[in-house]
Design brief:
Layout lengths: L1 E3 L5 E4 L7 H14 L4 H5 L8 E3 L9 H4 L7 H16 L16 H6 L10 E5 L6 E5 L1 H7 L1 H8 L8 E4 L4 H13 L9 H10 L3 H13 L6 H11 L2 H13 L1 H6 L8 H9 L7 H18 L6 H8 L13 H6 L9 H12 L19 E4 L1 E5 L11 E8 L3 E9 L6 E11 L2 E12 L5 E12 L5 E8 L6 E5 L2 E4 L2 E7 L16 E5 L1
Length: 523
Amino acid sequence: ILMVDEKGKNMKCLTFFLMLPETVKNRSKKNSKKGNSSTSSSSKLPPVCYEIITLKTKKKKKMAADIFPRKKPANTNTTAVQQYHQQNLNNNNTIPAPNWQGLYPTIRERNAVMFNNDLMADVHFVVGPPGGTQRLPGHKYVLAVGSSVFHAMFYGELAEDKDEIRIPDVEPAAFLAMLKYIYCDEIDLAADTVLATLYAAKKYIVPHLARACVNFLETSLSAKNACVLLSQSCLFEEPDLTQRCWEVIDAQAELALKSEGFCDIDFQTLESILRRETLNAKEIVVFEAALNWAEVECQRQELTATIENKRKVLGKALYLIRIPTMALDDFANGAAQSGILTLNETNDIFLWYTAAKKPELQFVSKPRKGLVPQRCHRFQSCAYRSNQWRYRGRCDSIQFAVDKRVFIAGFGLYGSSCGSAEYSAKIELKRQGVILGQNLSKYFSDGSSNTFPVWFEYPVQIEPDTFYTASVILDGNELSYFGQEGMTEVQCGKVTVQFQCSSDSTNGTGVQGGQIPELIFYA
């Protein structure tokens, strides 16, 4: 008997001589006639029969997910599956077809059918504020498995047996996003509902969903929404998100203060921003932003936006604005004529600017420290030759990438190698062909090999692990210094910068040599 496994692989070979009764009798007679014949003669007799038996070996048990990998259902069931998914989204409460369980190979998919489905629902939620409510079905067991709050609500010592639960402080879309995570193990976030979803995840203690919301907010963080997110991150006690918001607000302070979102922050957040020592903005911009916030706050409090009411809603926060540190022109043409200051305050501040003996002020008179820019220098040396470096409206360009989020404030550029000269520089920063920042300005070089800063109007946010293109078109003295012995990677503080050549460069600048010797940034 040859025993093999299902794949035909030899497992064990056993040889048996299966003698039929007639055969045994005949052979016994032959052996008796021959007497004691050698055993070898009998061993040569062929077996009467043999058989191959297939053995089924034991296999490791597999779960449904192993047997049926995650993929789209077969074409025959696609329509039904899509109908149930759409039913869940729209809450049509359609009774599933018989044996609907057969459409889904895994327990996860079958459980997901219950999402927003009245089938077997044993509780309902009326979600949203009055006038904007939505009635959503739920299943206590599934909810209790996904949230300790729901577990206490349905199975705890103080559990109440209610068929309907009202939740006026959560938006229906956010509650549905949380239910979708609990039922389907899927995270579906949108920019307009992520904050409300974070609130729901925090309220019902669904930590993984809350973490996903915070990650979503961090990746979408910009100067336009940084102030609002700062207010929310403090409310939700998310220190990492708070720190990221401060990084954006500090570096892009003027953009953040001029954003619409700044007027939506609460008074406590307003005070924290006005106190900020590292705010990288002109004080006149801070002053104007505070007045804009006061006007919107009057509307929220249903007050007429008069000068008196604006000052009333600002309260003591007005004195956090460092008016005495403004440029005299900014104060004379802006703050002094705004009407928000009293006559005595205006006179005292003018004396502060001009008098030797300065009066005491309620306003903070010490300038903000702001941020200290860092410089990433990519060349190890520089040189000049009689026939280089020439500019005739051609573009010098280089690509770079960083490993941490930074804010590019400008470039350091070389100047004339033939004595002092003035240059006109058009600087530009792009990502995949999209212009993120540009500026046209002039700078004066003194004939040395030093670099001279040229700034963007506002710092540009740079995300990690993505290549950006830095470009400059210079117009001025054709002969200038140029860099050489360029490095492909430079460590600047805690930031690593990588460089590579750009196809936009038409004037000879590359990794090994050329212009744009420095990136100036905040980190």
